[in-house]
Specification:
Number of domains: 2
Protein name: Histidine kinase
CATH superfamily of the largest domain: Hypothetical protein af1432
Shape: globular
Distance between the termini: 37 Å
GO molecular function, one term: kinase activity
Pfam families: HDOD
Organism: Chromatium okenii
Keywords: Kinase, Transferase
Number of strands: 0
Order of helices and strands: HHHHHHHHHHHHHHH
CATH class of the largest domain: Mainly Alpha
Number of helices: 15
Structural class: mainly alpha
Strand content: under 5%
Length: 289
């Protein structure tokens, strides 16, 4: 990946990772703190609510998500504490991460801007499909972890797009960007960068592992969260959600489906579900900020 100055593009990206990975708006700090508070195991509704309310933009998005068709009840919730009471602390913590990812998908450079809605759509749909799979295969206790793993499995792509955007707009040494170059960078680097980023942010190791291994030919078939995320990701690829469709994929023949004991009928239900979730993802993209 050569560029016009004396450093390779990979070297420039690695430099940005070392210097800017804690500052680039890939995660919202409140959403990250919320995940860590959730991990403590003794968080209260008051603590969760107070933390979310530190960021009014995040709080408003969490409320909108809590009242969306996917999560809402018969009556709208008007406070964060009511949302936590209705949905539970784990679900609200994950909604905060969804909201933070929506806020992060903002880019200016023409060569990378079209990737953002597709990346968001793919991540959200993969996460929702993964949660459904966990519930359908006897791993309901892992459903929220699977959801977050799906949401973050391609976080390396978001980080790389942010860095490429900055490099393209550098005032002194702008790096020329083409769609082909951007695609090459994403394919070559997003697994490793995503894994390193999640580790640097001190999120649980499982999310870093999923980011690293979700495309590996050989993978740990006993790692349930990884297996489910991989299968949901494969279904997204078959349907063309965030990528070019590959209708030739036979889901029941995949190692992931076989490990989970899934047959054609259940996999067909998953395909229908994900097609419906795309509409929800699209609505969240265009929802007013």
């Amino acid at each position: 990946m050569p560029v016009s100055n004396s450093k390779s593009l990979k070297a420039l990206i690695d430099e940005r990772f070392e210097s800017d990975s804690l500052q680039l708006p890939v995660f919202n700090r409140v959403a990250l703190e919320l995940q860590k508070l959730k991990q403590s195991g003794n968080a209260s509704i008051r603590q969760i609510s107070d933390l979310i309310m530190k960021d009014q933009s995040l709080a408003s998005r969490v409320l909108r998500l809590a009242n969306s068709s996917f999560y809402g009840g018969l009556k709208q919730v008007e406070t964060i504490s009511a949302a936590v009471t209705r949905l539970g602390m784990n679900r609200v913590a994950n909604l905060a991460m969804v909201a933070s990812q929506l806020m992060a998908h903002d880019i200016q450079t023409k060569a990378v801007i079209h990737y953002m809605p597709e990346l968001w759509r793919h991540s959200f749909v993969c996460a929702t499909g993964g949660r459904w799979l966990a519930q359908q295969t006897g791993y309901d206790a892992l459903a929220e972890e699977v959801f977050l793993a799906g949401l973050l499995h391609d976080i390396g792509e978001l980080f790389l797009l942010k860095v490429l955007d900055l490099l393209a707009r550098d005032a002194e040494h702008p790096v020329p960007m083409t769609k082909a170059l951007v695609g090459e960078v994403l394919e070559a680097m997003h697994n490793d960068i995503g894994s390193r980023l999640l580790a640097k942010w001190e999120l649980p190791e499982v999310y870093s592992r999923v980011a690293r291994d979700h495309h590996l030919d050989g993978f740990n078939e006993t790692d349930v969260i990884l297996v489910i995320t991989r299968l949901s990701d494969i279904v997204c690829h078959k349907l063309g959600i965030g990528c070019e469709a590959d209708f030739d994929i036979v889901l029941a023949a995949t190692p992931e489906a076989q490990v989970l004991g899934l047959r054609e009928i259940k996999l067909a239900q998953l395909e229908v579900l994900l097609e419906d979730v795309v509409a929800e993802a699209n609505a969240l993209i265009v929802a007013p900020k």
